[in-house]
Amino acid sequence: MNFIKLTLKAAFVIIISACNQNKYTPKLDLAAAPEQREFANFTQQKINDNLYVLKANNYNTNVGVFIGNKGILLIDPMFGFNTESHKQLVEAVKTLSNLPITHVLNTHSHADHSGANAFFAELGATIISQNNAIYTKTFTDQTFKDTYSISMDDETITLYHLPAHTFDDVLIHFAKNNAVFMGDTFMTNSFPHFYYGGGSKGHLNFMEKTLKLSNAQTTIVPAHGSLTTTKAALQDYKAHSIDWSRRILELHQKGQTPKEMANDTQLLTLSDYFNNGKVSSDRLTQTLEKTLSVERISSITLSEPIILNLTGIYKASNGNVFEVDFIENNIYFKSKGNFMYQLLPLSENEFIIKGQVPEKQVLFTTDMPKQLIYNDGKSRMEARKIN
Ligand SMILES: [Zn+2]
To answer: How far is the CA of 188 from the centre of ligand 1 (A)?
Structure first.
């Protein structure tokens, strides 16, 4: 059976804020806080005596360092993709404390955050991620579903699962230190990221949860860009994110293509705000394409019995195992150690993959034995239902 080329006459679901016709205020000053120091290959910012943010000068991911009485907890301790740079990070941490690294937390599974997990596990650290990380290539040894709390001395560190940028996003809150680590749901040097996990709605939920946990003194740690920033800066970013989503929706409804949208004055002004200046028209177009591939959804809604008939485990002849799941009204297509996608129905048996439109498709056969055919954009794989 062949996949037909699919035209999407899709609805565009996005967060609309009715009254936010704001003129774009200049970005708040995100300049370094006074307690910042440069050493070796790193910039370091102190939040408190026991909480720091480190960033390697040649790598753009913020790393959190919490120093307990008995051990050290790291957040997203990945910089560089080789053990040499991991060792440099260990050395940098040693300038703060000689205690062992006992815990590693990931804000999400992308390699620039979690790529050093196995390295730190070997040093004896427990790696904690959200459960959906098992459907990625990341190494993890302890997972949780909704929330997870760690008590270290008099600090309570709470992890909240809120899908936005990925399916395994985690917001990390330090109660006593009054600090929040947001991962890639907040970057001070880039567009609102491509939110295939929760769409723009998930992005908004994540920001709102962070704002709820924060006050004027809270230290907000974005994943990329400045080491730390403030609640006010996040509020500003949130307002611009809402405008960004709304404008894309407006232009999409007028029938504009991403290329055409890339010339829109409002989107260009927002792009300057997010990126601290101009980016190439190609990069803007690509971001708009990706955003549309997440926000644009099929107009078809399937009844629950039809969906439940498709859920289960499928096995391909090469041994690959796929899971089709129905959770909170969403259909997921998963493969352990590999991927997790959300399926969007175009008919009772044809599905596209949110954020991967139109290359990747899944087709279910109607005859017995039940099978699925997965087209990953390069090849097609058949898998038979085994459970
Ligand atoms: Zn990421």
So the answer is: 14
Which residues lie closer than 8 Å to 278 by C-beta, 6 or more apart?
271, 272
Q: How far is the CA of 183 from the centre of ligand 1 (A)?
A: 7
pTM score of the predicted model: 0.88
CA of 52 to the centre of ligand 1 (A): 21
Contact assessment for residue 136 and residue 109, using Cβ atoms and an 8 Å cutoff: yes
Burial zone of 218 (CB within 10 Å; 0-12 exposed, 13-18 middle, 19+ buried): buried
Residue 133 alpha carbon to ligand 1 centre in Å: 12
Per-residue model confidence (pLDDT) at position 59: 85
pLDDT along the chain (387 residues), means of 10: 34 32 42 67 94 91 97 90 88 96 97 94 96 96 97 97 97 98 95 88 96 97 95 97 95 94 97 95 94 77 93 95 94 96 93 86 88 93 94
DSSP secondary structure string for all residues of 188-257: TTSPSP--TTTHHHHHHHHHHHHHHT--TTPEEE-SBSSS-B-HHHHHHHHHHHHHHHHHHHHHHHTT--
Residue 110 Cα, ligand 1 centroid: separation in angstroms?
Answer: 5
- Residue pair 367/385 in contact (Cβ under 8 Å)? The answer is no
108 Cα to the center of ligand 1, angstroms: 7
Q: How far is the CA of 366 from the centre of ligand 1 (A)?
A: 37
Could you tell me the distance, in angstroms and rounded to a whole number, from the CA of residue 135 to the centre of ligand 1?
15
Peptide bond into 358 cis (omega under 30): yes
Model pLDDT, residue 33: 53
Task: Compute the distance from residue 343 Cα to the ligand 1 centre, in Å.
Answer: 21
